[in-house]
């Protein structure tokens, strides 16, 4: 922004009206004369950050994605443009133009008209920019279109991957789903339309020509860089036209109240003669109430618009707050889950407890488990409808459908890992003692083939009948065995990142040590294997396709990843994203929950706030995780399917009925008023 304004100042002699002269006083005075205009533009800039966070949560909660329809209409036109003109020098030049040029048009347009005191244009351009953004909001929230580089297989997101610094910047400010309409076209095109329509004496001809040329070059840029579709550009032009018309219609009303030349006088009146100010406000309120008590079509139109805004706000709020806290726990700190069941450990003041939840029931009613000798060293696991819990000497087996008492117990001493797996369609227990794998059925009978021992295990997990483990001797190899089947398969993991990413970590004082890299965490299914790898500087997320033997970094290699969970085609993890230890920002201190839909290879941000979230576990219909606000820890349950809560349904039903009445009333009024206006 600062560089854009500096460039605007340097170009003042080029774009100034022919008779205007440059001097120092207007640089200071235009803030006093146009502070409301400046405030509007800055409010739009800050509102974009809030909207992007809401959009990320909506996408994660609903999966609203119109990209396939845009692609079906448009085909691969954008791919042809990129492949025809692609060159390294052009990519570098247009990326910097894309970033800096937009700021220039947004801020310099207001600055020029304010500096030369062209209030006629300043009023209309400011409102046009505001209306462009307001009209784009419903599309950004409910008509999500992904960038072309993330959609068309052969297309590249050239701007987003130019350098690690630029990639991080784009990931922070852009959810990559706000394609339709393009603000990079909408705002400059609206400025050009304003100059075409309202610059009566053509004093701004040079600037108008420049903005038009900028718009054309931007259209090529956003196509070439793999960001927008052609239809996004058309959408930007359409809302620009609508915004200019709305700005013209609302300009007199808006600036009647918010013109800086009269605002100061009103402030003085409020401070020195509050009684007079209150009388004026009271009279305005009384007049407004009188109009809406006997409304014309204008007032009923306003009422209908207010109803639609309230309904949209309720839907947006509910869809972005779908993770519900589970009751019955005071200090949850660990959990296990399977099917529609989950159990959470509660480290409460009165002693450690286990609380069972049936996620298929309304309200997720908690059930307090009774486990003899339960403490913080106890281990537990779930599979299908079985839950096993250990104390210092015994393993208790529970049926979650009848959890009041254990259905059996097995002697079990000190052990490390404890898993429930499958063998020949039967649930079995897998655990390690001093790094050696043991498997037994729920009656305590050993099932491990003595000729196929597995030792030196440092971490392991299972999925169905397969067990994956890592040994101390091969810390970067995942071995997978299938219970009841001889042999095993090994997967060598590579957590290397581009040299530029490693250089950034070194500059932070945390150099990468690939020679001592170790696998810390795993989760897998028949198709994919996900692991976190400690490379000293950070823990990286690697995703391995077991069918094709391809592997890649599934998260930014600079930021610490933990708590993997992979099931039902979803990979979830927690990450401390965007955290730079050299320039620490408090909003990046906490961990957030991310997940990837492996079928479409699209990633989403499930949480985006200042709370700390960790420990996600993927279920068929839900995702569970922990959240802390610094004082209270909650066990959260997120439903994959969008579902409006009871209070929302009631509000929406009332809104629909009210809209039905008000819209019908408004249509009748409009036709009646037009009929009367034709009568002599």
Give a summary of the structure in a few sentences.
The chain is of the alpha+beta class.
Count of extended strands: 27
- The rough form would be described as globular
Largest sheet: 4 strands, antiparallel
Q: If strands are numbered along the chain, what order do they take across the biggest sheet?
A: 1-27-26-25
Q: How many helical stretches?
A: 17
Low-pLDDT runs of 5+ residues are: none
Can you tell me about this structure?
The chain is globular. By secondary structure, the protein is an alpha+beta fold. A hairpin with a 2-residue loop joins strand 13 (457-463) and strand 14. Helix 7 packs across helix 8, helix 7 (88-115) packs across helix 10 (183-198) and helix 10 (183-198) packs across helix 12. Among the domains are: 31-272; 294-322 and 642-680.
Q: Could you name the key traits of this structure?
A:
globular, 27 strands, 4-stranded antiparallel β-sheet, 43% helix, alpha+beta, 680 residues
């Amino acid at each position: 922004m600062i560089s854009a304004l500096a460039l605007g100042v340097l170009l003042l002699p080029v774009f100034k009206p022919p008779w205007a002269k440059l001097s120092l006083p207007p640089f200071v005075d235009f803030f006093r004369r146009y502070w409301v205009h400046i405030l509007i533009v800055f409010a739009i800039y800050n509102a974009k950050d809030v909207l992007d966070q809401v959009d990320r949560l909506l996408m994660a909660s609903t999966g609203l994605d119109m990209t396939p329809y845009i692609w079906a209409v448009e085909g691969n036109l954008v791919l042809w443009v990129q492949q025809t003109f692609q060159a390294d020098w052009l990519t570098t030049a247009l990326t910097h133009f894309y970033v800096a040029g937009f700021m220039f048009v947004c801020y310099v347009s207001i600055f020029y008209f304010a500096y030369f005191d062209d209030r006629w244009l300043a009023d209309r351009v400011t409102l046009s920019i505001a209306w462009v953004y307001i009209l784009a909001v419903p599309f950004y929230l409910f008509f999500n279109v992904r960038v072309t580089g993330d959609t068309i297989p052969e297309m590249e997101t050239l701007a987003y991957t130019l350098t690690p610094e630029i990639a991080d910047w784009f990931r922070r400010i852009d959810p990559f789903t706000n394609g339709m309409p393009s603000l990079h076209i909408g705002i400059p095109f609206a400025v050009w339309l304003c100059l075409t329509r309202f610059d009566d004496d053509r004093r701004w001809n040079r600037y108008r020509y420049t903005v038009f040329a900028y718009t054309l070059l931007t259209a090529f840029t956003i196509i070439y860089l793999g960001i927008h579709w052609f239809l996004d550009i058309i959408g930007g032009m359409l809302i620009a036209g609508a915004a200019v018309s709305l700005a013209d219609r609302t300009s007199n009303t808006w600036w009647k109240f918010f013109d800086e030349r009269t605002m100061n006088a009103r402030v003085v009146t409020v401070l020195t003669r509050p009684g007079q100010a209150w009388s004026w406000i009271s009279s305005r309120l009384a007049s407004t109430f009188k109009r809406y008590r006997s409304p014309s079509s204008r007032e009923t139109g306003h009422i209908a618009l207010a109803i639609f805004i309230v309904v949209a706000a309720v839907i947006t709020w509910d869809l972005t707050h779908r993770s519900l806290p589970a009751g019955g726990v005071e200090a949850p700190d660990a959990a296990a889950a399977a099917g529609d069941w989950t159990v959470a450990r509660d480290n409460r003041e009165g002693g450690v407890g286990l609380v069972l939840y049936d996620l298929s029931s309304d309200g997720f009613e908690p059930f307090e488990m009774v486990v003899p000798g339960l403490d913080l060293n106890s281990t537990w696991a779930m599979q299908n409808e079985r839950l096993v819990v250990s104390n210092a000497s015994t393993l208790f087996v529970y049926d979650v459908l009848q959890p009041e008492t254990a259905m059996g117990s097995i002697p079990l001493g000190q052990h490390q890992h404890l898993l429930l797996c499958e063998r020949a369609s039967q649930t079995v227990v897998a655990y390690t003692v001093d790094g050696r794998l043991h498997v037994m059925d729920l009656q305590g009978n050993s099932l491990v083939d003595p000729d196929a021992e597995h030792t030196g295990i440092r971490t392991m997990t299972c999925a169905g009948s397969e067990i994956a483990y890592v040994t101390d001797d091969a810390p970067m190899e995942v071995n997978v065995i299938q219970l009841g089947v001889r042999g095993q398969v090994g997967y060598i993991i590579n957590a290397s990142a581009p040299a530029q990413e490693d250089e950034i970590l070194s500059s932070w004082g945390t150099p990468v040590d690939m020679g001592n890299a170790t696998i810390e965490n795993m989760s897998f299914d028949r198709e994919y294997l996900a692991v976190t790898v400690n490379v000293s500087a950070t823990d990286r997320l690697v995703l391995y396709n077991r069918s094709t033997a391809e592997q890649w970094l599934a998260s930014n290699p600079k930021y610490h990843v933990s708590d993997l969970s992979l099931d039902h085609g979803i990979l979830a993890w927690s990450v401390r994203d965007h955290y730079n230890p050299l320039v620490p920002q408090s909003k990046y201190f906490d961990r957030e929950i991310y997940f990837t839909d492996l079928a479409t290879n699209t990633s989403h941000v499930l949480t985006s706030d200042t709370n700390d979230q960790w420990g996600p576990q993927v279920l068929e219909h839900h995702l569970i995780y922990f959240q802390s606000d610094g004082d209270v820890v909650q066990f959260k349950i997120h439903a994959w399917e969008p579902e409006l809560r009871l209070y929302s349904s009631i509000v929406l039903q009332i809104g629909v009925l009210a809209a039905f009445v008000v819209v019908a009333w408004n249509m009748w009024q409009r036709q009646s008023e037009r009929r009367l206006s034709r009568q002599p």
